[in-house]
Design brief:
The protein is an alpha/beta fold. Helices cover 42% and strands 27% of the residues. The strands form three sheets. Strands 10-9-8-13-11-12 form a six-stranded mixed β-sheet, with helices on both faces. The longest helix has 16 residues.
Amino acid sequence: MNSDVNVRKIGITTDCVCDLPNSIIEEYGISMIYFYISTENGCFKDRKEITSDNVLEHLATGGKKAASDAPPVSEYADFFKRQLRHCSELIHITISSGVSHSYANASEAAEQFDGRVHVFDSYHLSTGMGHVVIKACEMRAAGRDIEEILTELTAMRECVSTSFIAYDTSNLYRNGLVGKTANFFCNILQLHPVLTMKHGSMVLQTFKIGNYRRASLRYVRNELKKKGIDRTRLFITHAGCSVQTVNMIEREAEENCSFDEVQVTKASATITCNCGGDTFGLLFVRKNDEEEKS
């Protein structure tokens, strides 16, 4: 199959919460639909009208509300209609249905387009979801058809590792991701939660105790000592971390697992609403069983 023809035929789109850097967005020609952030000051489009830094500043200066929401069905329908002017079929990759209405809204909108729009649940968020988007773009460029891409993505999403460590549970509690009792004891005992995506749901993996800097380094070491890591690309995605902290994380990651490419990205406002500041994650892909055997 001629890859140039296939690139024009298949469009790849995603939700803006994939947190991919502009360099990758531009390289692959990825179009995104925006999520919404609501505060006391109004409703804003993520990435276009509000950033993670804006959210953190709002909360730090007395703001009490910062909530995110997926685009409604009507906006997905308009978005798909615009994209189909440039391609025959479309694959839209969403944030996990376990944490957002995005997949449900996009799927309902896709029903209007006679099978030309294929909505895919990434099972992940942030740059964990971004890994899935990149894979779809690479397969399209290689001349793979819709069915092959979707089949490969279904297998690949089980190999993506999406996790992060948060400074505390205050934002997670405010957004209903941890309970009142857990939030109380985490604050009293200086417990830093480590959360991970598992089969499309966000689950509490463990807690790190004590000084946050040392806890962060333990998190990096624990994540990167896992077996079967594909060392092609690592995303370090953060919300409100200082330059010094990011540099520390990069050094620790390099000492524990050398990747061909390491990209530091900022979390979207949507992600930041839920995790809060001084939060970061390591997002990478593990090799599947066949790759490990070869």
